[in-house]
Amino acid sequence: MHPMVKPALRRAWRDLRYVQFGASQAHAVVVGPVDTASGTLLSLLDGTRGLPRLREEARAAGLPDGQVDLLLSRLTQAGLVDDATGGGPQAEALRQGAGATLDRLRPDLSSLSVVHPEPGGAMARLAARGAMRVQVRGAGRVGAAVAAVLSASGVGQVEVLDGGRAEPWDVAPGGLPKEAVGERRDAAAGRLVRGSAPGKLPRRVRRPPGAPPLDEPALSLIVVAPRDGLAAYAPDRAASGEWIATGTPHLYAGVLEATGVVGPLVLPGGSACAGCLELTRAERDPAWPRMLAQWRSGRRDTVAGPCDLSLATAVAGLAAAHALAFLDGDLPTSTGARWEASLPLLEWRSEQFKGHRDCSCGAVGQTEGERASGAGTPQDTMAG
Questions:
Q1: Which conformational region is residue 301 in: left (phi greater than 0), alpha (psi within -120 to 50 degrees), or beta?
Q2: Which residues, given as ranges, of the chain have pLDDT below 70?
Q3: Residue 162 located in a structural domain
């Protein structure tokens, strides 16, 4: 282990005895009282030394035996210690690989170190993303941007499914470029994903006709980001039947009539699904099924619906953040819930959904996990 005080957290002395790590209330920690010996050791915890060398240097400085281990124990309990060599075999492979890849991902690694307190946890999660496979359904203003962000964040396999050819209104910063207009949407999105990746992506081997299927990792997540936002706002239960049957998590995101939605994140059998949403809405509004059938079957013009570019970008960013939180092992607040914001006020609000008793998904009676918020005053810990 090569311990270091997490460099992502800004350090400031509150007075001569107490030091605060972190400026934001969500992750700030106050350490103290800090004596002279502990202050000296703090400067040595930079990831360049292993434990034996740290103990030797502390002893040479006249510090008592056990001082290093005591300080590290207390700082680790406070979530302030990272391991410059931790994270396991996948993390070591990432370190030994192309340096440019890790350099591209250093801000992401730094962010993960703040969120996950255990030493080496950030690097382990970043490396694990490389083996994950995510499918994005939709290559419009929202879907293409989500795919690009996931790829740029180190997700190893990002597939984009969509039909037809890119239209001028599909073009967006961070999404499909203007050169893609007229090209097949899935091909243009695939090029966007490859160009956004921090390193070289593994080539997908094409299977000749009649050849046995290739082994590939199971889908970690499906992001449903249709160009027609109705399919995200009121998702079709029939379309998600296969995902429910195979236990594949899926997250809805889109823009409908100047309203952006992110969620719900569906954990099959564990949180409300599209069927639960549909049944719940029908109970509240008996006319809803009739209107929904008309909207779904009605012929749409070729001109795109109301999808403000800035709102679509915000939705894509929030959806990608929720997707990455889930891939990294957390349950974001979109689990069994939907976040929604409408122009012009853009006040984000959430609505929680319960599993419906008449839905066959099996989520009725289940309680979705919640991540405790760290917001408030900085945490205090004694380290001296």
A1: beta
A2: 98-99, 201-215, 299-304, 367-384
A3: yes
